[in-house]
Design a protein that fits this description.
alpha/beta, 6-stranded mixed beta sheet, 5-stranded mixed beta sheet
Length: 306
Amino acid sequence: MNLKQLEYVVEISRSGSINKAAQNLYLAQPSLSASVRQLEQELGFSIFRRKNSGIELTSEGKLMLLSAKLIMEEVDRIRRIPTLFDSQRNLSISGTWSSLLMCSFMQFRNDEPEEHIQDNFKETSFQQAVHDVMDQIYRLSIVSCLNSRLELHRLELQKHHICMEPLAVDVPAAAVFSKDHHLSRFKKVTIEQLKRCSVVTYDIRSNDDWLGAFGLESGEDVLNIFDRGGMLDAIRHNYVAVTTWDPELEASLPNTVMREITDGPLSSIYLLRHGAYTLNPREKRFLAYFQAQLDAVYGRIGESIR
């Protein structure tokens, strides 16, 4: 058994036929069939059941496919190691939605332009940002995590040798809405008031249980969106955005106001990186710059990153 044979099994299962898999793998169909037969003989069981309409996995094949996929995922991680540790000089950051993070990233690039360097930045959900650094797609992730979920996430990240370093703690939750919204007359708002409003939030339902932390059930008038433009459009249509306190977000959305949710859950902001990875000089300078922005907004939590 070898890696190529495992790759073949995964592709055949994905394609649904040996002929199509052979085309995708740029192999002759007889050669691919022979390789699978050889693997089946070695394992002592059939992986696929041939039918007139194509193929299907046997019961043994289904179990074998689960392991094959895990092995191939690990192989992909190994192959990406050079991109993680070969003296990269650029920024490679995946993060949860944050106007403060995005504005800091753009301002840093303006203040410290570099020729012949391509920086990479991605805004996404908490879960995807975590997987981006786990899978070595991005070298760093900057995420906002509910304090109530911290230990659960820390234990999971430790299994993958991911360090979780605090950048800001106890960040309050906030509501953002149009200046014409009836909540705008209040200096602060409560969860009970939100329950009587149409609510919009970033699409994070599958990871940090964000809405559940507010006691907002899925059956209520809640809209999940995936981008800033969608959030702005929803606010214009009298929705209330539920997010973490982010003054840059308020500044970036015209005719809006931000109010603290007094009984909302607290979050903290963390830097995620592989335990074996050493920050490059450009990353160190950016993180020091970003830390200064966080300290100015949320207060210092200790010694900044050097």
